[in-house]
Amino acid sequence: MALEAIQSLIIDKIVAAFDGDANKFETFLVRASLETDRLAIESAIRKAQETKGIEVDEANAIILGLQEQMQTLIAEIDALL
Question: HEC string of the chain?
């Protein structure tokens, strides 16, 4: 019974936080997922920039590709707003 009460309380708080709007909640979840992906790409960019011993042209190609992916995700995030 305590578990059901806790679950109900959590659901009530989520509903209140998003004014009962399921679309707002879904957008929040999608945005969080996209932000996580963006952060992973940024981390990969930093790692590629810091990596020593690889050719500059190869590193630049990796960085450019990752930046393009990040820009695509940023555009998706902005479209949700």
Answer: CHHHHHHHHHHHHHHHHCCCCHHHHHHHHHHHHHHHHHHHHHHHHHHHHHCCCCCHHHHHHHHHHHHHHHHHHHHHHHHHC
Q: What is the pTM of this model?
A: 0.62
Distance from the Cα of residue 41 to its chain's centroid: 10
Tally of CB atoms within 10 A around 45: 18
pLDDT digits (tens, 9 = 90+) for 36-45: 999 999 999 9
Asked if 48 and 40 touch (Cβ cutoff 8 Å), the reply is: no
pLDDT one-digit tens code per residue, 52-79? 666 788 888 899 999 999 999 999 999 9
Please state the domain extents for the chain.
20-80
